[in-house]
Amino acid sequence: MKVLLKRARIIDSKSIHSKQIQDIFINDGIIRGISSDINFSCDHLIENENLHVSNGWFDPCVSFGEPGYEERETLNNGLSTAAKSGFTAIVLNPNTLPVIDTHSSIGHIAQLTKDAPCNLYICGSLTKAMNGIELSPLYDLHRAGGIAFGDYKKEINDPHLLKVALQYVQSFGGLIVSFPQIESLNSGTFVGESDFSLDYGLKGSPVIAETIALLRDIEVLKYSGGNLHFQLLTSKCSVDIIRQVKELGVSISCSVGLPHITFEASDMVEFNPNLKQNPPLRTKEDVSALSDGLKDGIINMVTSMHEPINRELKQHDIADVKEGSIGLEATFGILNSKFGLTNTIDFLTRGRKSYGLKEPKIEVGHKANLSLFNPDINYVFDYQHIHSTSKNCAYIKKKVKGKVLGTILGEYLTLNT
Length: 417
Known about the structure:
It is built from eleven helices and 16 strands. It is of the alpha/beta class. The model has no long low-confidence stretch (mean pLDDT 96).
């Protein structure tokens, strides 16, 4: 397949072509030419107004449903949604049924998705059935293709287990993922402690629910060595802690979820079930600190926290509603509106390094791994922009800037019509 992109502005701070308007010719999935005027015959000519391209985007924390919850999202539709949303790689969380804790479970998913338009990487569960008691066969999961190991949205409540895991995976360069939350301190809460929770008489989740777990796991890491990733930070205190620890040279990375840099606790005033998140939304000060941490690189990456949920599980009183929102489709528009184009592309492309993945390049001879977009279109995000099967979206009616036009991953071309 031959694809020709005409007059595309390249956004890639590491490329000699950065900010240049160039034609890009792709043949058999490989970039064969980058210059100001290419007129080769092609199967697909792409010449959208204000066409921009960057390295393909990466999301490190995505849930679908299959296997076990296919009614929420199948792997095929989920990966198609990711590609249409500008992502060429995602990391799948292990919260499936059964949990991803065996060689065969990773192999099965890899086989189902080998011909997808978006690369799927797998985070295997740290413990069997995510029970927090017995380690999964981590080396076996690694051999099957698992690139990280963590119990999705479950605290590691046994520091000895974390120590052993960090020591064990050093033999093959594995990455441990920690969800820094003390569950007992979050019991009965659905929003962070704030003026809002006090005004409405709600039991709020204290910041120490996050920072106690964060500090403990950092101390374990200092002792054991290894690579540790903290998933879904929510507070200013945590950003300050990570900043101090990174200055000491400790090998850690961390991420923030799109909801936690978009919404604050007071946005829950109408008890929108799609704004109920785990971890919970916090204060305006926390949102600001997380945003600043992302801009200055203390927070390594952002994730959509894409999590399809059955409709019936969102139709309860707010205390009983299942947490989570889909977010892949809204991510670019939300980030571009808030941070501008240069920062947004940086956030969406720099996370691969922490996961030990090779970073793509916009250079002749390299495999095409491109996101296509127009960054200057303003619109209101609504249901017609959702490709996911589930519609539990927190971003409906948000004003956003920037539309995704599609992706190119090797010989897979995905275009939004």
